Known about the structure:
Layout: H1 3-11, E1 30-36, H2 44-47, E2 49-57, H3 61-66, E3 69-74, H4 81-84, E4 92-99, E5 105-107, E6 109-110, E7 119-121, E8 131-138, E9 142-143, E10 150-151, E11 154-162, E12 170-178, E13 185-187, E14 190-193, E15 195-196, E16 203-206, E17 225-230, E18 238-241, E19 253-258, E20 265-273, E21 279-286, E22 297-298, E23 328-338, E24 348-357, E25 372-382, E26 393-395, E27 408-413, E28 426-427, E29 460-469, E30 477-478, E31 483-490, E32 497-500, E33 503-505, E34 509-514, E35 525-533, E36 537-544, E37 558-566, E38 579-580, E39 582-589, E40 598-604, E41 610-614, E42 620-630, E43 635-646, E44 657-658, E45 662-665, E46 669-680, E47 692-698, E48 703-714, E49 744-750, E50 762-767, E51 787-790, E52 800-805, E53 825-829, E54 834-846, E55 861-872, E56 877-893
Parallel strand pairs: 1-12, 14-25, 16-25, 26-37, 39-48, 50-51, 52-55
Antiparallel strand pairs: 1-2, 2-8, 3-7, 3-11, 4-5, 4-8, 6-7, 9-10, 11-12, 13-18, 15-17, 17-23, 18-23, 19-24, 20-21, 20-23, 21-22, 24-25, 27-35, 28-35, 29-30, 29-34, 29-36, 31-32, 31-35, 33-34, 36-37, 38-41, 39-40, 40-46, 41-46, 42-45, 42-47, 43-46, 44-45, 47-48, 49-50, 49-53, 51-52, 53-54, ...
Amino acid sequence: MNTKKMMLWLITAVFLTLVFAGAATMQVSAVATFTLTNDDCKDVKNDGIEFRAPVSITDPTTEKFRSNIIVEITDPNGLVGSTGYHIGTDVVKEVALYAASDSTEYQCQQLTITPANNDFSCNSFPVGGTISAIHVTFVPNITGTVPNEVVVYGEYTIKISESAVTPADVLLTGVAKIDAASTACAQNQGTGTFSPVAPATAFIYNANDDCDDNDIPDPTYSEEQEILFNESSTNPFRIVSFPLGETITPERFKIVASPETNSYDYDIVLKFLANDNTPYYLEYSYIQNTDSSTIATLNKCADMTVPTALGTCTTGINDLWDITKLPIKLVGGAITINNTIPALLPTQTNFTIDFYYRNVDPTLGYENSMFHFQRNMSVQFSNYCTGTGNENHRVASSAYDPCKSSKQLFNISFIDTTGPTPGVGIQLDPCNFGGGVGGWCADTIDIPVLPGESYPENTTNYYFGTLKCMDATCEHQSGTGSYVSSVVVNDGYYTGTTWGANEVSRSTLSRIPMRLFQTATNIFEMTAINFVADGPGTYLISAFATDITTNTTLENTKQLKLYITIPQKDSDLSCYTPGNDGRFEAAWDGCNEDWDSEQVEFKAVNESYSFISNYSNKKMTFTLSAAESFMPTALEMNELYCEWQVLAEGYSADGGSCGAQQVVLPPYTRAIVTGGKFTMNGKPSILDDKPYLISYYREETGNDMTLIMQMSIKECKQEKIPDTGYSLRSPQPLAGASKSDIIFTGNSLQIPAIGLGIETPIPIVHVSYIGGSFDNGWDLTMVGGYVGELEGGAYIPYAGNSVLTGHYYSQGVFVNLTGLHLEDEIYIYATDGMKYVYKVNNSFYTKPHDVYQLFQPNGEKSLTLVTCDSYNLITDEYDNRYVVMATLDHAEPYQMP
């Protein structure tokens, strides 16, 4: 039979029913594991350490938290806070409760400071609310004297009890582990990117040893090149504090970098500044084909080679880490690349630098370290020249953004900023640069404008061919989808004239018609180009104009070579991936048992879908995030129903996935969630009609898509309960069946503790289903002034849980039921000649719909009694139910008088 239906029918009766078996009136404390919050860097000795524990605490325990509580801390050696290790001092600094309904924090008020007793009141917490988490901040046991104080490490016990009653109920117990990491603090750990040091706009290694283009290596060229970088100035990695009593042990610093390469050696130097501005340095030196994790991190000035641009490392000053004045922050550094063969260098290397302070146990790595961070930087290896007179070698002032469409526009300026003619671009001879136009090619004299003449009308086709360098020296190139879209020139009359391409062949060769002329005072020069690139790297652009009278091949007409380097951004933080929230509804089947596992389908409300849009050229992943979600009852996502949209021509949703744990979006696509399925392992909690929030989250940018889920309980079909309750608004005699219709079981009940059945035990009658069907409910007219044994429970004296019910208030047999206490005895005189003695082991108040356990076993033989309580004169109903549970203690023969 369906016991859920039986319970719903029984508990909504207006009259009172009575049952025996359930949960004890004595409060059983919750057990929690507290974890470090790391929300802030605090003074351990004075401010304490903050720990958090997820819980699920409801009334009546919530109300006890709202009253007065005492928080007791016991160290690993058994010493109790204010009376043991910090005598006379408030060990507990803060207590806060978090509401399950909306995750709001409610600070508890400390009641007394002197004497120290760690009393708090959390009366700001909502009445009747559910506590989802508890934060406790306390000072650990600190031994020794300044400056050699140390924290006692180990598991600390947190006990929260009522403080206004004796004996006090323990409301919660838990443990909080304190180790070195708990008492140390660093800011801005995690992943980030380094930035170039001005005036550089990108990390460039110059692989061109012949910038004079004379086929003779430049004598000043060096394969060893330093590339400087800066840490974020607003959010740098900063070590704020070390474990109390400890100093920095520099040998525990570890740097591990990638890639592991066979193309070159490289050294990485990190520069730190202490609170007194003393610089400190660490160095990592990678040798080709070496396992990077085996390389030692150097910390002594005598062992390091610090680039001049980073300052001077003086032994005995800049390497005395043990006396560093905290806080100390990372400010930047340098990567030095050497021992290279330029022709064998790649065009780009993405460096990843992992830094951490190793655990005392050397086998524990990065994730188990006290402090750590990861930084990234992309270095372009380019056929690049920085010297005077090499204006045809340029680096774009902006970087290629992998988040955007594959073809991106860059403006490349050729204005000389360092050479002998600042402000001048690449000077071109129009007489040789395509033959000029008519007589306008002269470059030494002014050509007067004749009457009626003005600017030359004829143009010459000028061509720009683009190839991408396949190696750092650009000895090898390949075709590409990149091209010059326009050119900016100064000519004989005008400055800043832009000539656009009127044809692009094979996506690489641009034909740009221009008027090529100059005067003696106005030199023809190219000041900039607008270049469309389909990716980062170095491009070779050949510029030429055909002269069909003298030239037969394009090679013979090349006039200019340009080497353009397009750097790449080091992260995808700029990728635009907005998420949109949607509204859904789901219903739990109320006919199931509360502890049943059920798969629930959810659907969008009025087509209010959730969706994620990927407006980038990269594949993006959104992951189901428990931290960003709000689920009063845990659930497991099984499936998402998704539809796909393509946001740009030439793209597709191929490779995309819409899974329960993560959503993967190909470039320029949108995933639309229309519904799905999840599994719950128990009846969902419905908190003030608050929706569940299920969030899919992109950690790099904080974008998210939230499914706003309105949960409900699908009502189980049930018949109307007969109105046999006793109304106090208009008292009427209790209705009952004629005695001839009542079925007496032959058993009777006596409860000495409340004076029930003392002179004559109360007969127990059988209460059956109306019409023999549970769907019709019980025939409560049989109860009258007797005790009713409900059909569906065990029949006395057989094994199982027997459910007894009776009327309440002055006319009811269970009017004094709330007077029972633990261990009070209940007697059943059975037809088998035995007196069964039960002892109360549990009793509690509950709401009408919260007694799923009424028909559950409570030992081999048990009783459950339930009755109404808290009459509401306005609604003419009883708001609460009172439940008593008892188990069989022993049986003995008896003879009725």
